[in-house]
Amino acid sequence: MSQSKFPKLLDYNSLKQELGTSHSEYTLSPDATDYNNAAIEAEPPQNTGLTGSRLRSYAFAVLTRKEFSKAELIEKIETYAANREEVINLVNELSEQNYQSDQRVAEIVLSSQKRKGKGPQRIKLALKNKKINSDLIQDELKEIDWAEQAYQLKIKKFGYAVEKDAKLKAKQIRFLQYRGFDMDAIMKAINQKEFED
């Protein structure tokens, strides 16, 4: 293959001389590049910014994939929007029309965390991370028998035996505390005997 088919991108000799004589200067001279005599400049990406019906369509597309809290939805949409004010108005409208619901998200979080063996403190923390007020599911949290939940988790991890050894008891307490259970529920769980109601 002949060399003439490929444009010469860098003149290595002039680059060597330039960098060899002056280490403080790392810019190439205009004749050091020979690619149509044009310097390629990196342009910052332009934010086209969605507005109107395109922004609304994007919001619906986001909500069809999964439930988002109001705060999460605003954060997700505003990265592609031209105007934050428009995003906030759109999310408020979607919330009023029940396309977006913090109540639904709170119930999903409660169900998911409970299934994973988390206690009320961890559930409240998960809601706080999603910027949802835990008051939305206060009644549901009160209806759950947390001592029973803690007991089932204790059985799964440590078995039915009620520990007499202080170190092993402390280990069970730490485990259940980490899972987000209150001390009252923990003490009932670790002291409950098998077949005891």
Structural notes for this entry:
This protein has helices at residues 12-21, 52-65, 70-78, 84-96, 102-115, 120-129, 138-143, 146-158, 166-178, 183-191. By secondary structure, the chain is mainly α. The chain folds into three domains: 47-100, Arc Repressor Mutant, subunit A, CATH 1.10.10; 101-144; 146-191, Orthogonal Bundle (Arc Repressor Mutant, subunit A), CATH 1.10.10. The radius of gyration is 31 Å and the shape is elongated.
CATH structural class of the largest domain:
Mainly Alpha
The portion of residues forming beta strands comes to: under 5%
Q: Biggest sheet, in brief?
A: none
Structural class comes to: mainly alpha
Rg calc:
31 Å
Low-confidence stretches: 21-46
Remind me, CATH topology of the largest domain?
Arc Repressor Mutant, subunit A
The count of DSSP E runs of length 2 or more, i.e. the number of strands, is 0
The whole-number mean of residue pLDDT values reads 79
Our count of helices gives 10
The general outline is elongated
At CATH level 2, the architecture of the largest domain is: Orthogonal Bundle
H/E series: HHHHHHHHHH
For the termini, the CA-CA separation is: 88 Å
Whole-number tally of structural domains: 3
Helix fraction by DSSP (H/I, runs of at least 4): 55-70%
